[in-house]
Amino acid sequence: MHFSLIFVSMDKNQDLLNRRKLATLGGGKERIDKQHQQGKLTARERVTVLLDENSFEEIGSFVEHRATAFGLDKQRFPGDGVITGYGTIHGRLVYVFSQDFTVLGGSLSETHAAKICRIMDLAMKNGAPVIGLNDSGGARIQEGVVSLAGYADIFYRNTRASGVIPQISVIMGPCAGGAVYSPALTDFIFMVEETSYMFVTGPNVVKTVTHEEVTSEDLGGAKAHAEKSGVNHFTAANDVECLKKVRDLVTYLPQNAYELAPQPTIFNYTKSKLDQIGKILPENANIPYDIRKVVECVIDDESFREVQADYAKNIVVGFARIEGKTIGVVANQPSALAGVLDIDASRKGARFVRFCDSFNIPLLVFEDVPGFLPGTDQEWRGIITHGAKLLYAFSEATVPRITVITRKAYGGAFDVMNSKSIGADLNFAWPTAEIAVMGAKGAAEIIFKREIASAEDPQAKWLEKEAEYAEMFANPYRAAERGIVDDVILPEETRAKVIAGFKMLEKKAETLPKKKHGNIPL
């Protein structure tokens, strides 16, 4: 009797091991091979690359769908097309779900959705990021409305988790229809070139409704969403590169809204950059330059991680480190549209500022802005409302905020770009800064219109008055006299001033007026 019990126990143990092995096979070897032939990793391989070695703990590996209609009772797979669990990235806890395209096309069923919701609930309870690896054909049509309800359950949790824990979506295959709205609600989206795409309606529907011929890649591929829509924040050439970029981004982020970002103890800074920074700006204020060169001279070596680099290039946003501490950088880019603010730049900047404020990441702003982009296209598409988004985001932010004006700071755009009047903690200006309502040329034309018109040589008079206005207002000293700028500094002093400023602001405590939430101009 004693021996028979041992044999029964061994059989049950072997049964468990067999079931585990079956669960790891997903949709089977043939489908796994097809996944590899398409240049894609499997769902499990992706989790292995993303997380620290041997750190993944799976939850729900034996879950199966409950549907029987349309032959689903004969298509049952352990895990139901999504791998869920938790592990670590550089030793820090994260929660992960990875959709398995080899199982019924990664389609979302009632139980598939429940597994994802389970992971999101745990992430909220324990204050850790959620990373979703998306590779799915969409809702499981055979299950009807319950699969749609599953999406809604996920959307609801995305919204509740917003601003509480970082949420990252990694698109590693198809993501279409209602499925796109979960990534859209998360903080950052990564896409893989050639193998991933997102759209609400696919090429076939587009052709039927609008008669447009378009491929999946052109309609919703990584490049399209990186350059045209701004939906995609980071692009990678393949699955492995993409997952490594996710691992890197996580090192800049805190676990949740109640903690600070991790602070590496070792950082490097090349002191020769202090000599370079003063040589970046051209002598002619109308000649463009790359603001990223200025940023690189202030931050720790090789620490800048630009976000949405291919979208709205007239503004640069991204994460960096100063003395090992994470900061968010927002900078006008004179080399693209002269650095003007337009609809896309305003939206891009506002979204990034709000993320940083949600997760206690101090903001460093580099300002060189000639104003808002004029024209009927911008006005009719709502530059007023969209520009107000950036204004709202900065005004609402309670994290430490420092602005450095390198050159132009004109009109309403000066106010919007983190001016002291909307709550910036410190504002510095270089000697090259021009802080005024508008450029000297336009201002002279308005202020001295009659004098110019009545002069013997109107053109010469105009140039004379332009120089007069420039001497009076196109400098940082009027603003410094009024305390609108805290100090005028040499370019090579910028890093030291910023370090001292953020150190001073470490214990900053500011709260917004009590309210349910504001009504941002959407």
Reconstruct the topology from this structure:
Elements: H1 2-24, H2 29-37, H3 43-50, E1 57-59, E2 82-89, E3 92-99, H4 110-126, E4 130-134, H5 145-161, E5 167-171, E6 174-176, H6 181-185, E7 188-192, E8 197-199, H7 203-210, H8 216-220, H9 222-229, E9 234-236, H10 239-250, H11 273-276, H12 291-298, E10 305-307, E11 315-322, E12 325-332, H13 343-358, E13 363-369, H14 376-380, H15 383-396, E14 401-410, H16 411-416, E15 426-429, E16 434-436, H17 440-447, H18 449-454, H19 458-473, H20 477-481, E17 487-488, H21 494-504
Helix pairs in contact: 4-5, 13-15, 17-19
Descriptive account of the structure:
This protein is an alpha/beta fold. The protein has three domains: 2-250, 2-enoyl-CoA Hydratase, Chain A, domain 1 (Alpha-Beta Complex), CATH 3.90.226.10; 273-438 and 474-504, 2-enoyl-CoA Hydratase, Chain A, domain 1 (Alpha-Beta Complex); 440-473, no CATH class. It is 40% helix and 17% strand. The chain has helices at residues 2-24, 29-37, 43-50, 110-126, 145-161, 181-185, 203-210, 216-220, 222-229, 239-250, 273-276, 291-298, 343-358, 376-380, 383-396, 411-416, 440-447, 449-454, 458-473, 477-481, 494-504, and strands at 57-59, 82-89, 92-99, 130-134, 167-171, 174-176, 188-192, 197-199, 234-236, 305-307, 315-322, 325-332, 363-369, 401-410, 426-429, 434-436, 487-488. Strand 14, helix 16 and strand 15 (426-429) form a beta-alpha-beta unit. Helix 17 packs across helix 19. The radius of gyration is 27 Å and the shape is elongated.
